[in-house]
Design goal:
The protein is mostly beta strands. The protein contains one helix and 35 strands. Belongs to the NOTCH family.
Length: about 350
């Protein structure tokens, strides 16, 4: 006979041996099994059972996960995270390993963790940055303002650097702290010289332009007294801050270093070959007639008479080895050249 006690919520409280919403079914332990999470059901009496739970679970029906964290081995602030019949350690960023037992070397892991040339030193669970002069902060990224304790005078402006500062002086002042009068303000140096002021005592120094010397660069250097810079017997003439060369005949250039090529004007006639010599030239003529290289040449073996067409520095005809050569001459007045055989 089955009876049921009804509640206000219309729930049936069944007598032992019955089950179901309306206590309509006979109760058989372990059918179906009430054990969870892989537990094994075993009937102990007519109306009772026991669950044999797998490792990591507990409770009447194996419904509870056993907390494996009590007595855990996590170190260095690691947090135990429970699993199923196990646990693992969640480590802070400065430690690693199964139980957070290993210190992380931040200096090796992140070589640029310390900035601006700082030295990184690993410590237990952290690191230190040893900053170079002019920087501070945990990673040495902050430039120290050196102007905070600086003293620039006479209205100068302090400019912060790295581990240093400098004072931008107002006109007329100089020195590391702009505390001195600038001696260059009075323009003591000669024109084209560069005036530099000593930051130690404010005195001036003149850097002279080429060709000048002296404290204020006003003294002209006589380059001609130092050994003539002119070549090929050129005459040196001193000039303010420099020199000039008066070149001998046949040479040109600032130092008379260039030989004038007299053959460029093609002085040889009738297909004669011109040979340039220092300060002069020669004509090499083919031996075909007495009037070699010039239609106005004199007769063979005689000197030509003077004529209105006399030329200064005209060439001289010379016979050598079966060839005729005109050689230029200086300071002579000849008519077409003098034939020599």
């Amino acid at each position: 006979m089955r009876t049921a006690e009804h509640t206000q919520c219309n729930l049936c409280m069944c007598e032992p041996g019955y089950t179901g919403k309306n206590c309509e079914s006979g109760y058989i332990p372990c059918s179906p099994s009430p054990c969870q999470n892989g537990g094994t059901c075993k009937q102990s009496t007519k109306y009772s059972y026991e669950c044999k739970c797998p490792p990591g679970f507990q409770g009447k029906n194996c419904e509870e996960n056993t907390d494996d964290c009590p007595g855990n081995l996590c170190q260095n602030g690691g947090t135990c995270v429970d699993g199923i019949n196990a646990y693992h350690c969640s480590c802070p960023s400065s430690f690693t390993g199964e139980f957070c037992e290993n210190d992380v070397d931040e200096c090796a892991l992140r070589p640029s963790i310390c900035q601006n040339g700082a030295t990184c030193t690993n410590t237990h669970g952290s690191y230190n940055c040893i900053c170079v002069n002019g920087w501070n902060g945990p990673d040495c990224s902050n430039n120290i303002d050196d102007c905070v304790d600086a003293a620039c005078f006479n209205g100068a402006t302090c400019i912060d650097g790295v581990g240093s500062f400098y004072c931008r002086c107002t006109p007329g002042k100089t020195g590391l702290l702009c505390h001195l009068d600038d001696a260059c303000t009075s323009n003591p140096c000669h024109a084209d010289a560069i005036c530099d002021t000593s930051p130690i005592n404010g005195s001036f120094t003149c850097s002279c332009a080429v060709g000048y010397k002296g404290i204020d660069c006003s003294e002209d250097i006589d380059e001609c007294d130092q050994g003539s810079p002119c070549e090929h017997n050129g005459i040196c003439v001193n000039t303010p801050g420099s020199f000039a060369c008066n070149c001998s005949q046949g040479f040109t250039g600032p130092r008379c270093e260039t030989n004038v090529n007299e053959c460029e004007s093609h002085p040889c006639q009738n297909q004669g070959s011109c040979l340039d010599d220092p300060g002069t030239f020669r004509c090499v003529c083919m031996p075909v007639s007495a009037s070699i290289c010039s239609s106005n040449a004199p007769a063979r073996g005689v000197s030509g008479p003077a004529s209105p067409n006399k030329k200064r520095n005209a060439p001289t005809l010379v016979s050598r080895g079966g060839q005729f050569t005109y050689k230029s001459r200086t300071n002579d007045w000849i008519d077409g050249g003098r034939l020599v055989l």
